[in-house]
Amino acid sequence: MAIDFTLSPEQEEVRRRVRTFVQETIIPAVKDFDDEEKATSREEYIRTLLDLRERAKAEGLWLPHMPAEWGGMGLGHVALAMVQAEAAKTRLGPWILNCMAPDEGNMHTLLHWGTDEQKERYLRPLAEGTKMSCFAMTEPEVAGSDPTLIRTTAVKDGDEWVVNGHKWFISSARRASFAILIARTETDVPEGHRGANTAFLVDLPAEGWNDVREVETMHGSTGHSEIVITDLRVPDANVLGGRGNGHRLGQYRLGPARLAHCMRWVSQAETALDMMVDRALNRYSHGSVLADKQGVQWMIADSAMELYQCKLMILHAASKIDKGEDFRTEVSMAKHFVANSLNRILDRAIQVHGALGYSTDTPLAKMFQHARWARLADGADEIHQMRIAQRVIAAYRDTGTTHSATGGLPL
Protein backbone atom coordinates (compact mmCIF):
# COMPACT_ATOMS: atom_id res chain seq x y z
CA MET A 1 0.00 0.00 0.00
CA ALA A 2 1.52 3.28 -1.09
CA ILE A 3 1.48 6.08 1.45
CA ASP A 4 2.03 9.47 -0.09
CA PHE A 5 1.14 12.70 1.64
CA THR A 6 2.48 14.86 -1.16
CA LEU A 7 -0.01 17.60 -1.92
CA SER A 8 -1.08 18.22 -5.49
CA PRO A 9 -0.06 21.53 -7.08
CA GLU A 10 -3.64 22.73 -6.54
CA GLN A 11 -3.49 21.84 -2.84
CA GLU A 12 -0.10 23.50 -2.46
CA GLU A 13 -1.61 26.62 -3.96
CA VAL A 14 -4.43 26.46 -1.39
CA ARG A 15 -1.87 26.16 1.39
CA ARG A 16 0.03 29.18 0.05
CA ARG A 17 -3.14 31.24 -0.20
CA VAL A 18 -4.25 30.34 3.32
CA ARG A 19 -0.81 31.11 4.73
CA THR A 20 -0.68 34.45 2.94
CA PHE A 21 -4.19 35.37 4.06
CA VAL A 22 -3.46 34.48 7.68
CA GLN A 23 -0.07 36.17 7.85
CA GLU A 24 -0.78 39.27 5.74
CA THR A 25 -4.47 39.90 6.37
CA ILE A 26 -5.78 38.29 9.57
CA ILE A 27 -2.83 38.77 11.92
CA PRO A 28 -2.24 42.46 11.09
CA ALA A 29 -5.98 43.19 11.37
CA VAL A 30 -6.29 41.72 14.89
CA LYS A 31 -2.85 42.48 16.33
CA ASP A 32 -4.11 45.43 18.38
CA PHE A 33 -6.81 43.37 20.05
CA ASP A 34 -5.93 39.70 19.83
CA ASP A 35 -8.09 39.23 22.91
CA GLU A 36 -11.64 40.54 22.83
CA GLU A 37 -11.00 42.51 26.03
CA LYS A 38 -8.26 44.52 24.32
CA ALA A 39 -10.51 45.80 21.55
CA THR A 40 -11.10 49.55 21.37
CA SER A 41 -14.77 48.61 21.49
CA ARG A 42 -16.77 45.43 21.10
CA GLU A 43 -18.43 46.93 18.02
CA GLU A 44 -15.05 47.49 16.38
CA TYR A 45 -13.96 43.98 17.30
CA ILE A 46 -17.07 42.40 15.76
CA ARG A 47 -16.88 44.61 12.65
CA THR A 48 -13.26 43.61 12.09
CA LEU A 49 -14.00 39.89 12.39
CA LEU A 50 -17.05 40.00 10.15
CA ASP A 51 -15.09 41.97 7.55
CA LEU A 52 -12.34 39.35 7.66
CA ARG A 53 -14.94 36.62 7.14
CA GLU A 54 -16.25 38.39 4.05
CA ARG A 55 -12.70 38.70 2.74
CA ALA A 56 -12.15 34.98 3.34
CA LYS A 57 -15.27 34.22 1.27
CA ALA A 58 -14.06 36.53 -1.49
CA GLU A 59 -10.66 34.78 -1.48
CA GLY A 60 -12.32 31.36 -1.80
CA LEU A 61 -10.99 30.32 1.62
CA TRP A 62 -14.35 29.63 3.25
CA LEU A 63 -15.54 26.31 4.73
CA PRO A 64 -12.52 24.17 3.78
CA HIS A 65 -14.22 21.10 5.30
CA MET A 66 -17.53 21.36 3.44
CA PRO A 67 -18.45 20.28 -0.10
CA ALA A 68 -18.76 22.84 -2.87
CA GLU A 69 -22.55 22.58 -3.04
CA TRP A 70 -22.64 24.02 0.48
CA GLY A 71 -20.27 26.86 -0.41
CA GLY A 72 -17.17 25.07 0.80
CA MET A 73 -13.76 24.23 -0.59
CA GLY A 74 -14.48 20.49 -0.74
CA LEU A 75 -11.16 19.41 0.77
CA GLY A 76 -10.46 15.93 2.05
CA HIS A 77 -9.08 15.48 5.54
CA VAL A 78 -5.42 15.32 4.46
CA ALA A 79 -5.72 18.64 2.64
CA LEU A 80 -7.84 20.00 5.49
CA ALA A 81 -4.98 19.28 7.90
CA MET A 82 -2.71 21.81 6.23
CA VAL A 83 -5.49 24.43 6.07
CA GLN A 84 -6.34 24.03 9.76
CA ALA A 85 -2.65 24.15 10.71
CA GLU A 86 -2.10 27.36 8.75
CA ALA A 87 -5.30 28.95 10.06
CA ALA A 88 -4.44 28.12 13.68
CA LYS A 89 -1.31 30.28 13.55
CA THR A 90 -3.67 32.81 15.08
CA ARG A 91 -6.47 32.08 17.55
CA LEU A 92 -9.08 33.66 15.29
CA GLY A 93 -7.98 32.01 12.03
CA PRO A 94 -10.30 28.96 12.11
CA TRP A 95 -13.28 31.13 13.04
CA ILE A 96 -12.62 33.53 10.18
CA LEU A 97 -12.43 30.61 7.71
CA ASN A 98 -15.56 29.11 9.39
CA CYS A 99 -13.88 25.83 10.30
CA MET A 100 -13.79 26.18 14.09
CA ALA A 101 -15.19 24.02 16.87
CA PRO A 102 -17.97 23.30 17.66
CA ASP A 103 -19.57 24.48 14.40
CA GLU A 104 -17.24 22.45 12.20
CA GLY A 105 -18.23 19.18 13.85
CA ASN A 106 -21.89 20.16 13.90
CA MET A 107 -21.77 20.87 10.17
CA HIS A 108 -20.38 17.39 9.48
CA THR A 109 -23.09 15.93 11.72
CA LEU A 110 -25.95 17.78 10.04
CA LEU A 111 -24.63 16.98 6.58
CA HIS A 112 -24.57 13.25 7.38
CA TRP A 113 -27.58 12.86 9.70
CA GLY A 114 -29.96 15.72 8.91
CA THR A 115 -33.10 15.54 6.81
CA ASP A 116 -33.34 17.90 3.84
CA GLU A 117 -35.53 20.23 5.88
CA GLN A 118 -33.13 20.16 8.85
CA LYS A 119 -30.18 20.88 6.60
CA GLU A 120 -31.85 23.95 5.13
CA ARG A 121 -32.97 25.24 8.50
CA TYR A 122 -29.83 24.54 10.54
CA LEU A 123 -26.88 23.65 8.29
CA ARG A 124 -27.45 26.41 5.74
CA PRO A 125 -27.01 29.34 8.17
CA LEU A 126 -23.96 27.64 9.73
CA ALA A 127 -22.39 27.28 6.30
CA GLU A 128 -23.24 30.89 5.44
CA GLY A 129 -21.76 32.09 8.72
CA THR A 130 -24.94 33.83 9.86
CA LYS A 131 -25.53 31.60 12.89
CA MET A 132 -23.51 29.65 15.45
CA SER A 133 -24.30 26.43 17.30
CA CYS A 134 -23.36 24.28 20.28
CA PHE A 135 -23.26 20.57 21.11
CA ALA A 136 -24.85 19.74 24.47
CA MET A 137 -23.80 16.33 25.74
CA THR A 138 -21.51 16.62 28.79
CA GLU A 139 -23.06 16.57 32.28
CA PRO A 140 -21.52 17.38 35.68
CA GLU A 141 -23.10 14.46 37.56
CA VAL A 142 -21.69 11.67 35.37
CA ALA A 143 -18.41 10.99 33.60
CA GLY A 144 -18.26 13.08 30.44
CA SER A 145 -16.16 10.40 28.78
CA ASP A 146 -19.06 7.92 28.97
CA PRO A 147 -22.14 9.33 27.18
CA THR A 148 -24.09 6.14 27.89
CA LEU A 149 -24.47 7.46 31.46
CA ILE A 150 -26.33 10.62 30.44
CA ARG A 151 -29.14 11.51 32.86
CA THR A 152 -30.87 14.25 30.88
CA THR A 153 -34.21 12.76 29.83
CA ALA A 154 -36.60 13.41 26.97
CA VAL A 155 -40.17 12.07 27.32
CA LYS A 156 -42.57 11.93 24.38
CA ASP A 157 -45.73 14.03 24.81
CA GLY A 158 -47.84 13.99 21.66
CA ASP A 159 -45.80 15.45 18.81
CA GLU A 160 -43.30 16.98 21.25
CA TRP A 161 -40.60 15.86 23.65
CA VAL A 162 -40.28 17.25 27.17
CA VAL A 163 -36.63 17.51 28.20
CA ASN A 164 -35.22 17.85 31.72
CA GLY A 165 -31.59 17.70 32.75
CA HIS A 166 -28.30 19.39 33.48
CA LYS A 167 -25.42 20.09 31.08
CA TRP A 168 -22.11 21.87 31.44
CA PHE A 169 -19.00 22.82 29.49
CA ILE A 170 -21.27 23.51 26.52
CA SER A 171 -18.97 25.53 24.29
CA SER A 172 -20.43 28.58 22.53
CA ALA A 173 -23.85 28.10 24.15
CA ARG A 174 -24.29 31.83 24.75
CA ARG A 175 -23.57 32.62 21.11
CA ALA A 176 -25.57 29.72 19.66
CA SER A 177 -28.80 29.99 17.68
CA PHE A 178 -29.39 26.29 18.16
CA ALA A 179 -28.03 23.28 20.02
CA ILE A 180 -27.59 19.63 19.17
CA LEU A 181 -28.76 18.16 22.47
CA ILE A 182 -28.21 14.55 23.56
CA ALA A 183 -30.82 13.13 25.96
CA ARG A 184 -31.91 9.72 27.21
CA THR A 185 -35.17 8.64 25.55
CA GLU A 186 -35.23 4.85 25.96
CA THR A 187 -36.20 3.77 29.47
CA ASP A 188 -36.48 0.07 28.64
CA VAL A 189 -32.74 -0.42 28.07
CA PRO A 190 -30.18 -0.74 30.88
CA GLU A 191 -27.84 2.07 31.87
CA GLY A 192 -24.73 1.91 29.72
CA HIS A 193 -26.61 0.70 26.64
CA ARG A 194 -25.56 2.57 23.52
CA GLY A 195 -29.08 2.80 22.14
CA ALA A 196 -30.59 4.78 25.00
CA ASN A 197 -29.95 8.33 23.76
CA THR A 198 -31.39 10.53 21.03
CA ALA A 199 -30.13 13.77 19.47
CA PHE A 200 -32.42 16.80 19.24
CA LEU A 201 -32.14 20.14 17.46
CA VAL A 202 -33.09 22.88 19.92
CA ASP A 203 -33.75 26.44 18.74
CA LEU A 204 -32.23 29.02 21.11
CA PRO A 205 -33.19 30.88 23.14
CA ALA A 206 -35.96 28.62 24.40
CA GLU A 207 -38.19 28.46 27.43
CA GLY A 208 -36.77 25.82 29.72
CA TRP A 209 -33.18 26.24 28.47
CA ASN A 210 -31.50 28.12 31.33
CA ASP A 211 -27.92 29.31 30.85
CA VAL A 212 -26.76 29.48 34.47
CA ARG A 213 -23.18 30.66 34.03
CA GLU A 214 -20.01 30.48 32.02
CA VAL A 215 -17.73 28.05 33.81
CA GLU A 216 -14.53 29.75 34.93
CA THR A 217 -11.54 27.71 33.77
CA MET A 218 -7.80 28.03 34.28
CA HIS A 219 -7.70 30.20 31.15
CA GLY A 220 -10.70 32.31 32.11
CA SER A 221 -14.38 32.45 31.16
CA THR A 222 -14.31 31.63 27.49
CA GLY A 223 -17.77 30.44 26.57
CA HIS A 224 -18.23 27.06 28.28
CA SER A 225 -21.72 27.27 29.77
CA GLU A 226 -23.59 25.39 32.48
CA ILE A 227 -27.18 24.76 31.39
CA VAL A 228 -30.16 23.67 33.49
CA ILE A 229 -32.98 22.28 31.35
CA THR A 230 -36.47 22.38 32.83
CA ASP A 231 -39.53 21.14 30.90
CA LEU A 232 -38.00 22.18 27.59
CA ARG A 233 -40.34 21.27 24.72
CA VAL A 234 -38.86 20.13 21.41
CA PRO A 235 -40.92 19.16 18.34
CA ASP A 236 -40.65 15.54 17.23
CA ALA A 237 -39.57 16.87 13.82
CA ASN A 238 -36.38 18.09 15.51
CA VAL A 239 -35.10 14.60 16.29
CA LEU A 240 -31.76 14.36 14.50
CA GLY A 241 -30.61 11.04 13.10
CA GLY A 242 -33.48 8.95 14.40
CA ARG A 243 -34.59 7.87 17.84
CA GLY A 244 -32.01 5.93 19.85
CA ASN A 245 -29.12 6.97 17.61
CA GLY A 246 -27.68 9.68 19.87
CA HIS A 247 -24.59 7.66 20.81
CA ARG A 248 -23.81 6.71 17.21
CA LEU A 249 -24.31 10.30 16.10
CA GLY A 250 -22.05 11.63 18.84
CA GLN A 251 -19.27 9.20 18.03
CA TYR A 252 -19.57 9.96 14.31
CA ARG A 253 -19.19 13.64 15.13
CA LEU A 254 -16.31 13.27 17.56
CA GLY A 255 -13.98 11.20 15.36
CA PRO A 256 -13.12 13.82 12.70
CA ALA A 257 -13.62 16.62 15.26
CA ARG A 258 -10.88 15.15 17.47
CA LEU A 259 -8.52 15.09 14.52
CA ALA A 260 -9.41 18.68 13.59
CA HIS A 261 -8.38 19.72 17.11
CA CYS A 262 -5.05 17.95 16.53
CA MET A 263 -4.58 19.84 13.26
CA ARG A 264 -4.94 23.13 15.13
CA TRP A 265 -2.84 22.01 18.13
CA VAL A 266 0.09 21.00 15.93
CA SER A 267 0.22 24.57 14.67
CA GLN A 268 0.50 25.82 18.25
CA ALA A 269 3.25 23.30 18.95
CA GLU A 270 5.18 24.43 15.88
CA THR A 271 4.84 28.06 16.94
CA ALA A 272 6.23 27.16 20.37
CA LEU A 273 9.18 25.31 18.82
CA ASP A 274 9.92 28.26 16.54
CA MET A 275 9.92 30.56 19.55
CA MET A 276 12.14 28.15 21.50
CA VAL A 277 14.77 28.07 18.77
CA ASP A 278 14.64 31.83 18.24
CA ARG A 279 15.18 32.40 21.95
CA ALA A 280 18.01 29.87 22.04
CA LEU A 281 19.78 31.62 19.16
CA ASN A 282 19.50 35.07 20.72
CA ARG A 283 19.90 34.56 24.47
CA TYR A 284 23.50 34.72 25.71
CA SER A 285 24.48 33.12 29.01
CA HIS A 286 27.66 31.66 30.56
CA GLY A 287 29.91 32.15 27.61
CA SER A 288 27.62 31.27 24.68
CA VAL A 289 24.09 31.48 23.33
CA LEU A 290 21.58 28.95 24.65
CA ALA A 291 21.56 27.15 21.30
CA ASP A 292 25.10 25.96 22.08
CA LYS A 293 24.06 24.38 25.39
CA GLN A 294 23.54 20.63 25.22
CA GLY A 295 20.61 20.72 27.66
CA VAL A 296 18.76 23.21 25.47
CA GLN A 297 19.64 21.27 22.33
CA TRP A 298 18.01 18.19 23.85
CA MET A 299 14.80 20.11 24.49
CA ILE A 300 14.82 21.34 20.90
CA ALA A 301 15.55 17.85 19.54
CA ASP A 302 12.86 16.17 21.66
CA SER A 303 10.33 18.77 20.55
CA ALA A 304 11.23 18.39 16.89
CA MET A 305 10.91 14.60 17.06
CA GLU A 306 7.54 14.83 18.77
CA LEU A 307 6.28 17.38 16.27
CA TYR A 308 7.34 15.08 13.43
CA GLN A 309 5.41 12.21 14.99
CA CYS A 310 2.37 14.44 15.52
CA LYS A 311 2.30 15.45 11.87
CA LEU A 312 2.66 11.88 10.61
CA MET A 313 -0.07 10.59 12.93
CA ILE A 314 -2.47 13.35 11.86
CA LEU A 315 -1.81 12.80 8.17
CA HIS A 316 -2.15 9.02 8.39
CA ALA A 317 -5.39 9.20 10.37
CA ALA A 318 -6.71 11.80 7.92
CA SER A 319 -5.83 9.56 4.99
CA LYS A 320 -7.81 6.70 6.54
CA ILE A 321 -10.85 8.96 6.92
CA ASP A 322 -10.51 10.04 3.28
CA LYS A 323 -10.37 6.40 2.17
CA GLY A 324 -13.44 5.44 4.19
CA GLU A 325 -11.44 3.05 6.37
CA ASP A 326 -11.89 2.45 10.09
CA PHE A 327 -9.95 5.31 11.67
CA ARG A 328 -10.98 5.05 15.32
CA THR A 329 -7.72 3.67 16.70
CA GLU A 330 -5.52 6.04 14.70
CA VAL A 331 -7.57 9.09 15.70
CA SER A 332 -7.48 8.04 19.37
CA MET A 333 -3.72 7.62 19.17
CA ALA A 334 -3.28 10.96 17.46
CA LYS A 335 -5.58 12.79 19.85
CA HIS A 336 -3.73 11.44 22.90
CA PHE A 337 -0.24 11.91 21.51
CA VAL A 338 -0.73 15.38 19.99
CA ALA A 339 -2.45 16.74 23.11
CA ASN A 340 0.39 15.53 25.33
CA SER A 341 3.10 16.65 22.91
CA LEU A 342 1.58 20.13 22.79
CA ASN A 343 1.83 20.37 26.57
CA ARG A 344 5.41 19.10 26.62
CA ILE A 345 6.64 21.33 23.79
CA LEU A 346 5.05 24.41 25.31
CA ASP A 347 6.57 23.56 28.69
CA ARG A 348 10.03 23.32 27.12
CA ALA A 349 9.52 26.61 25.26
CA ILE A 350 8.62 28.33 28.52
CA GLN A 351 11.69 26.81 30.19
CA VAL A 352 14.02 28.09 27.48
CA HIS A 353 12.48 31.56 27.78
CA GLY A 354 12.99 31.53 31.54
CA ALA A 355 11.14 34.21 33.50
CA LEU A 356 10.04 35.81 30.23
CA GLY A 357 8.23 32.60 29.28
CA TYR A 358 6.44 32.54 32.62
CA SER A 359 5.29 36.12 32.12
CA THR A 360 2.49 37.25 29.85
CA ASP A 361 4.89 39.29 27.72
CA THR A 362 4.94 36.39 25.24
CA PRO A 363 1.93 34.28 24.18
CA LEU A 364 3.45 31.13 25.72
CA ALA A 365 1.77 31.43 29.13
CA LYS A 366 -1.69 31.76 27.62
CA MET A 367 -0.98 28.99 25.13
CA PHE A 368 0.07 26.74 28.01
CA GLN A 369 -3.14 27.47 29.93
CA HIS A 370 -5.23 26.53 26.89
CA ALA A 371 -3.11 23.46 26.13
CA ARG A 372 -3.95 21.74 29.41
CA TRP A 373 -7.54 21.48 28.20
CA ALA A 374 -6.38 19.41 25.23
CA ARG A 375 -5.80 16.36 27.42
CA LEU A 376 -9.45 16.40 28.57
CA ALA A 377 -11.41 17.62 25.55
CA ASP A 378 -13.18 15.04 23.37
CA GLY A 379 -12.15 12.22 25.67
CA ALA A 380 -9.63 12.22 28.49
CA ASP A 381 -6.20 10.67 27.92
CA GLU A 382 -7.08 7.59 29.93
CA ILE A 383 -10.23 6.85 27.92
CA HIS A 384 -8.29 6.91 24.68
CA GLN A 385 -5.63 4.67 26.18
CA MET A 386 -8.31 2.23 27.32
CA ARG A 387 -9.93 2.12 23.87
CA ILE A 388 -6.58 1.75 22.13
CA ALA A 389 -5.65 -1.15 24.41
CA GLN A 390 -9.02 -2.83 23.85
CA ARG A 391 -8.57 -2.65 20.08
CA VAL A 392 -5.00 -3.92 20.24
CA ILE A 393 -6.10 -6.90 22.35
CA ALA A 394 -9.06 -7.57 20.05
CA ALA A 395 -6.82 -7.48 16.98
CA TYR A 396 -4.49 -10.05 18.51
CA ARG A 397 -7.37 -12.31 19.54
CA ASP A 398 -8.89 -12.15 16.07
CA THR A 399 -5.76 -12.48 13.94
CA GLY A 400 -2.88 -13.57 16.17
CA THR A 401 -1.08 -10.27 15.58
CA THR A 402 -1.43 -6.65 16.70
CA HIS A 403 -0.47 -5.35 13.25
CA SER A 404 -3.88 -3.95 12.29
CA ALA A 405 -4.13 -2.04 15.57
CA THR A 406 -0.83 -0.20 15.08
CA GLY A 407 -1.81 1.61 11.93
CA GLY A 408 -1.97 -1.35 9.55
CA LEU A 409 1.11 0.09 7.85
CA PRO A 410 3.17 -1.85 5.27
CA LEU A 411 6.02 -2.62 7.66
UniProtKB/TrEMBL annotation:
Subunit structure: Homodimer.
The species this protein was found in: Bailinhaonella thermotolerans
Gene Ontology annotations for the cellular component aspect, listed alphabetically: cytoplasm
Descriptive protein name: Acyl-CoA dehydrogenase
Domain Acyl-CoA dehydrogenase/oxidase N-terminal, chain residue ranges per copy: 8-129
Entry's Gene Ontology BP terms: fatty acid beta-oxidation using acyl-CoA dehydrogenase
Occurrences of domain Acyl-CoA dehydrogenase/oxidase C-terminal (ranges): 244-392
Acyl-CoA oxidase/dehydrogenase middle domain segment(s): 134-229
